[in-house]
Structures are given as C-alpha cells and as structure tokens.
Design brief:
Structural class: alpha/beta
Strand content: 5-15%
Number of helices: 29
Distance between the termini: 53 Å
CATH architecture of the largest domain: Alpha-Beta Complex
Shape: globular
Helix content: 40-55%
Mean pLDDT: 95
C-alpha cells in the first residue's frame, strides 16, 4: 500500500494481486469536502496519475471526512474563479477508460452527488442520504445533475429530488447505486470486494451518459401535473421552473445537447435576483451565530434541566423543544388544572405527530416522560435554565422574576419570553441581572425556527454564549439583538400593521391590501394575519403604548374599533373579515368598509383610489426604514440579522432575501426617495411616520448598500 498527497486529494494504491491495484482518491477538504478549486485540481491530477499507471485496474473516489461531499464551495461564486470547472472534472471521470467507483461513506449533496453520478459505479450504505439542494440557493445542478440523475433514478424521482432539493435515503434509489451495504461500518470492506469482482469479471466502463431515457416513461402530463402540484410552494421562486425545464431536456434531447441546455438554464438562474437573495440568506443564516459578545475562551454553562413558567400554548411549545432533544423540563403553573391542561395539550401535539408518522408511540412516551409539572416555585431550585412565558405585562413578569431570584440556584440562567417589554426592567427585579436574558420564541414555539436572543445591559458573556449554543441544540436559528420596544421583529412589524390600517382609512380595502402583500410574497396580508393571530393581541399592545401613539388620532383606529365590537378575528368568526364556521377562508365584509368610511369622515381624511405601487411601498418601505434605525442604534449587529429574523419569524419571502436585502436589491435611493415623497405628500401624518432614517439617507446619498456596513 502506498500513499501520497495531491493537494486536497490524497492518492492511495491498494494492492489486490500481482500487477493489480485499486487507486483510491480520498477527498480531504474539511469540514464538508466542498469541491473547491484545490479539490478539482487534485481530482484531475490524481485521475491522470491513476489512468497512466498500468497496474491500476479500478479507481475509487471516496472521502476522508464524515461525508462524501457537501457540494460546491459557494464562497467561490462571488470570486468567479471556476477553473477548472466541475463539469470538466466530471467529463474526465465519465470518459475514463478504467472503471471508476464512487464509494459514498457519508452524505453527498449537490456537486458531491454529481461527482458520484459521473462515475461508472456507485456504492454506499442503506441509510446514507444524497440530494441536489441547489434550488435552495436559487440555482439548479449545473454539472450534469439534471441530465444524469433522470437516467439513473428515473424521471419522476429525479424531478422531485431536483425541484424540491430534499435529500433521499440511498436504499430508495436502487437505480442509482450498484451496491447498497446495510451497515456503514462494512462499507469499505464490501466496496473493495466489489472492486475486486469488477477486475475478475472484466467489468466494462458503464457511462451514465450512454443511457437513453424512454420518452414513454416521462410524458408531457408528468411535467404538467408536477408543475401544478408545486405551484403554491414554488410561488415567486425563479429556479424551480428552470429545474423542470432542465429535466425535460434530459428526456427530449441527446445527452450533450441536454448538458448545453442545463448550462443555459443554470446561467439564467445565476443571473436572477432570486438567486442573489437566496444565496445572501444562506450566508446570513450562518453569519447570525457569529457575534462579538463572546469568544472561544468564554465558558459555557451546562444546561441539564430546564424550568418553564406557564404551561399555556407558548410555554408548552417551548417545553417540547427541550423534550425533543432529551432535556428534562419542569412546567410551573399556579393552578393544577392549568398544569394538567397544558400537559394534555403537549401530549395531543405529540400524538398528532405520531398519527402522521413523524414519531413512534415509544418516542411520544419517551418525550412525555421528560416533562414534569409543579405548582410550587421551590421545585425549580435545581434547574440550570428557567424560561418565563406568562402574560405580557411588566408587573406580572417582575413578580415572577422576584420569585425565581429567591429559589433558583446560583448560576441558573433566568430567561424571559417577552416579545415587547424592556428586559432591563425585568432583570432589575432580581439581584442577578447578569444572569437574565431574553429568549423570544415565535409561535407556535415547537414549530417556528427563529429565536430572538435579547441581551440586557448587564447580561454576562457566558450567558449569551450558553443560550446561543443551546438554541442550536434545540434546532433553532438564534439571532442576538439588543433591548428596545419589540426588539427587532415586533418593533418593525408595528409600522407594517399601522400603514395597512391607515391605507384602509384612506380608501383601500382589506382584501386589496392583502392581495398586494400576498403577491409580493408574504404568506398572508396584514389583515388576514391580524385575524389569524387575534386582533386583540395588537390591541393590548397599543393600550400599553398610548403615550407613544396618542399624537396620531388615526393610529390603527379601525383595528381598535373592530376589537371593541368583539371582532377579534378567526377565533370568533369575524375580524377584518368574516369566516364561515370551520373555515379559515376570509370573506370580505362591507360593514368593515363602512367603519373605515365613518372614521375617515370623523378624522377629515378624504378617501381615494390608491395605486398598488403606493400600497406596497407604504407597507414595506417603513419596515425597511425601521430596520435602518435599528442598525443605527445597534439593536441589530448587522443587516443580515434583520433578514434572518424576518424570513424565519414573519414569512418574508426568502427569494427576496429579507427586507434589508430587498432594499439593497432595488436600491436604497429608491426607498429613500419614496419615504421622502410620502413624508411630503401625507401632511402631518407623513411628517411623523415617513421621516427617513439618517442611516438610510446617508447610504442612499453614497450609493451604498446595507450589506456594505
């Protein structure tokens, strides 16, 4: 056995007999074997060495990492240095005159799977997962994946993998793999036996490109039905349709022509604003965990037991996150009846998941066994983290924190799930403000991925680090923010709801506003969102903020009137819309338009026809402007953090990248000019609510972007 290293690819000769060797090309580019320039160069050099060695009868491509390859190194996308391009490497592999075997010792995604598809044989283990997730970056597989996968897996299977981006277990891909080993630990041994059999049987090179797809297996109806089935989730995205067109090319065109078509469609995707947005968001999500508030030397507190105050919908949902990863939880309620109700709801949620096949009955019982209840604060004396999830009122929360301060052990982290209140005031109710932090879960807490981690003035670095790392453990995307009303997400959404209400006063209908915002890409418009959440929620927040809004008599006046008339939304069958019993479909109600007309007359506001552009700009641009103020104040460390909060917490379309990326894409001068226009056109109202943020003005004048900060 001999070994030498060729850059990021190690070359090893494994003797199988006199004059008969297997050359193993080990990719070794930590952490995910990204197919960077070094790997591509290394593969070419190692392949050429193996092909020139007469003793080498079979070539194996595998990995020294825990996965075969995570795919392209997308950090190279902005640099433009694609030489040698991956397709050239794959062409060399496919056209080699010796059998090349891909041995997938772990997951293969994107370009990693495309490498395997270009090999002549593929070997892996049953549970291994492979996929082509490029669509999540706004592009399509650009190294032959759309042409080779349909030839091996079948058109229907390949179409779904490429358009959805979802990984699939190898055991479900019989056409792709020539040998699927049951146990991963036996993979290398069985792979070498497979190679020996290839040599002894004189096995030929088996090129994927030589396979012809039978058009009868992929009629036009297959593609039409697939387009229809994904229409809702693909809404607004650019890449899914191009993925479908590329797979259609695999059926209708010869292989080489199909590759050309794939390349054309790939370049269309790469040039799209949607791809720029999705790639921005890919990096933004990863950048959110990089904060300046701690470093590698900052210690981490051990979280072995968790307490949660409040067993309602939010508290129960938070508890499930910890039980899901094996951390025991004690739920506290003041009354046994409320506690029993909360635990029963959690069980119901788990059992619902079991009915859908997402959990086994045993897993339901295992998770429920980790959830205990109590009506006494003393039972929280040994928890490492306690999260308060009670009514959103300062006096209530301060009482809770006084009680926690008295019973919790030294070093326990005291967290509040507050969504709007001043965390520093809450921390002041304790003698240990350094241990207090905000953990703002989004509802439903067991489903939503976002966690706003709110640092107070005195929160210690190790508490911040511990909670940021804990978020990863419970499968949340954490974004660190500072203290202000509503933090980042709810502070910005205030302007969104305010403008929707004001536009109705000025003559727009709820259904027209909602349609424009839905067409922009939000999952629902502001009036539908208010009805689904409960119009009373916003009402209570406004009641607590009267001193900040009383200067504007029009402020959300229609929403207030709706609540005062008992129209609090879906839960009672009427809000901004009417709802038939058992239905979530909003029905426009002329009575709401009449309320708007009466209030407009009372306030001296003349109703008019409002353009779609004005509706969109007046709802979205103040959101961006508030984001600029948040950046200026240091509440968010970077604009991409705001984007992560808005995509994961509020459904802002990922194909727009988040509000700040959207602003960068259309140009900050566009946003600034519009803010100035409405400031000047809307009189006193505009003068107060459409004042451009100084940072927005500065960047617009300099021709810069938020991402330049």
């Amino acid at each position: 056995m001999t070994q030498n290293s060729i850059q990021a690819v190690a070359y090893e000769l494994v003797e199988q007999g006199v004059g008969s060797n297997v050359a193993v090309l080990w990719m070794q580019n930590p952490p995910v074997n990204a197919l960077s320039k070094a790997v591509r160069v290394g593969l070419i050099a190692a392949l050429q060495q193996a092909l020139a060695d007469d003793s080498v009868k079979v070539i194996v491509i595998s990995s020294k990492q825990n996965l075969f390859s995570g795919g392209a190194d997308i950090s190279e996308f902005s640099g433009g240095d694609f030489e040698p391009p991956l397709p050239a490497v794959l062409e060399l592999i496919e056209n080699a005159n010796k059998p090349i075997v891909a041995v997938l010792n772990g997951p293969a995604f994107g370009g990693g799977l495309e490498v395997a598809l270009s090999c002549h044989y593929r070997v892996t283990f049953a549970a291994n997962k492979v996929g082509l997730p490029e669509v999540n970056l706004g592009i399509l597989p650009g190294a032959g994946g759309t042409q080779r996968l349909p030839r091996l897996a079948g058109v229907a299977q390949a179409l779904d993998m490429i358009v959805s981006g979802r990984p699939v277990a190898a055991k479900k891909l019989a056409g792709v793999f020539d040998l699927v080993v049951e146990q991963a630990e036996n993979l290398l041994k069985e792979a070498m036996a497979f190679c020996a059999a290839l040599v002894s049987n004189g096995a030929a090179v088996k090129r994927t490109c030589d396979i012809t797809i039978d058009p009868s297996t992929a009629p036009a109806e297959l593609f039409a039905q697939y387009r229809q089935s994904i229409a809702k989730q693909a809404r607004g995205f650019f890449a899914p349709e191009r993925c479908i067109q590329a797979v259609e090319a695999a059926v209708s065109l010869p292989f080489d022509a199909g590759l050309v078509r794939e390349g054309e469609l790939f370049m269309q995707c790469m040039a799209s604003k949607e791809a720029r947005a999705q790639q921005h968001f890919f990096f933004a999500e990863r950048a959110a965990s990089h904060v300046k508030d701690y470093d590698k030397s900052t210690p981490v507190r051990d979280i072995q037991k968790v307490g949660i105050i409040g067993a309602g919908t939010m508290g129960g949902g938070i508890a499930m996150n910890f039980a899901n990863v094996g951390i025991p939880v004690t739920l506290l309620e003041l009354k046994q009846e409320a506690l029993d109700k909360g635990l029963a709801l959690i069980r119901k949620n788990y059992e619902s998941s079991a009915k859908k096949g997402k959990l086994t009955v045993a897993q339901v019982e295992e998770r429920m066994s980790l959830l205990g209840g109590s009506t006494s604060y003393s039972d929280l004396s040994d928890v490492d983290l306690v999260i308060e999830a009670v009514f959103e009122k300062m006096s209530v929360k301060q009482e809770v924190f006084k009680s926690l301060d008295a019973v919790c052990k030294p070093g326990a982290i005291l967290a509040s799930n507050t969504s709007t209140l001043d965390l520093n005031e809450i921390a002041a109710a304790t003698k240990r403000p350094q241990d207090v932090i905000g953990l703002h879960f989004f509802s439903p807490a067991n489903v939503m991925k976002l966690l706003e981690v709110v640092k107070g003035e005195k929160t210690s670095a190790d508490v911040i680090k511990t909670t940021m790392m804990m978020a990863k453990k419970i499968n949340k995307v954490a974004v660190l923010v500072g203290v202000c009303f509503g933090f980042v997400g709810n502070r910005m959404i205030e302007s969104y709801g305010r403008e929707a209400n004001r536009l109705m006063l000025e003559g727009a209908s709820p259904e027209h506003v909602d349609k424009i915002i839905y067409d922009f890409g939000m999952p629902m418009g502001p009036f539908t969102m208010g009805d689904m959440a409960g119009q009373d929620i916003g009402y209570f927040v406004r009641q607590s903020r009267q001193k900040f809004i009383k200067h504007d008599p029009s402020y959300c006046i229609i929403a207030d009137k709706l609540v005062e008339q008992g129209r609090v939304g879906l839960k009672v069958g009427k809000g901004a819309y009417l709802y038939a019993e058992g239905s979530r479909t909003p029905i426009p109600d002329p009575a709401v338009a009449e309320i708007a007309k009466q209030e407009a007359d009372r306030l001296g506001i003349k109703q008019r026809k409002i353009s779609e552009q004005e509706i969109l700009e007046r709802i979205i641009f103040p959101l961006i402007n508030e984001g600029a103020l948040i950046l200026e104040e240091g509440i968010a460390a970077k604009s991409s953090d705001i984007d992560v909060i808005y995509v994961y917490g509020y459904g802002f379309p990922v194909y727009r990248g988040g509000p700040m990326q959207y602003a960068d894409e259309i140009g900050l001068k566009t946003v600034y000019d519009a803010m100035c226009k409405y400031r000047d056109e809307l009189g006193e109202y505009g003068g107060h609510w459409f004042q451009p943020a100084p940072l927005l003005k500065k960047l617009a004048e300099q021709g810069k972007r938020f991402s330049d900060l």
